[in-house]
Amino acid sequence: MSLPAADRAREMWSRLAGSPAGFPGPGDAGVVVSPESSLCPPGWSGMVELDGAILAVVPRPDLVNGVRERLLALLGDGDGAGAGAGLSRLAVGEVLGPAELAYLDETDFRPAGVEVERLPSGHGDVEALLASVPEADAAESGLERTESPVYVLRDGSRVVAASAYRTWVETAAHLCVLTADPHRGRGLARAVASAAVADALADGLLPQWRARPAASRRVAAALGFRRHGEQLSVRDLAAALA
User: pLDDT tens for residues 107-144?
Assistant: First the structure.
């Protein structure tokens, strides 16, 4: 029997951070020195909050104590009072995020029940969809970097909605979704993402939804994803601690 989604997520982020102690317990914060961690760009600091606990990576040992003190303050002085850590309060200077993290247990999955088309990764019709939207939308979707089959819906011959995933440390299926602007608000994102989630679950992977836009978070909730925390990367964390 597989572990619950939250436990699998904590194990995955611990591996990405290179944390030998694993993910801390509720109300606690762990800080790991790892300049080349997969949790954030090289030389940056990265933080993940899950269910009232925070794991962070920093590029230098001299940052450890100050970062841990600040993170414990965000959590309510380490007593678990701050279930929402509010990593956005550290968003000073150049940052990536914060983005909400949501995960799905198979028993919570609410499939859309819509028939969609399956295409191989890198298919030209998906590339055409990516080229048709603003560059920022294409980057936000993450669809350019997926390796799974791509599930699509068309308007005539044109693909107007697509979803796929890429695998993280053999554990999570990181979902990527994109809908052409004129076709948004019609449930297409939920339909194609539902097929990608079903594929991931069939492969024994943990579906992960990481998003900033409210519309994307609503799609995740409709499929049964539950918000467990957020992720933030900061280029100059010393400025955020000042």
Answer: 999 999 999 999 999 899 999 999 999 998 898 888 98
Please say whether the beta carbons of 109 and 224 come within 8 A: yes
How many CB atoms lie under 10 A from the CB of residue 141?
Answer: 23
Q: Which residue has the tokens 């602007």?
A: 181
235 torsion bin: left (phi>0), alpha (psi -120 to 50), beta (else): alpha
Matching residue, tokens 């499929």: 223
Chain position carrying tokens 């590029």 = 59
Cite the DSSP H helix spans in 142-205: 188-202
Beta strands in 110-238 (DSSP E): 117-119, 150-155, 158-168, 172-179, 206-211, 226-234
Helix or strand run (H / E) with residue 163: strand 158-168
Say whether pTM exceeds 0.90: no
- For residue 65, the one-letter residue type is N
Residues 6+ apart with CB under 8 A from 122: none
Of 64, 59, 60, whose CA–CA distance to 35 is shortest?
Answer: 59
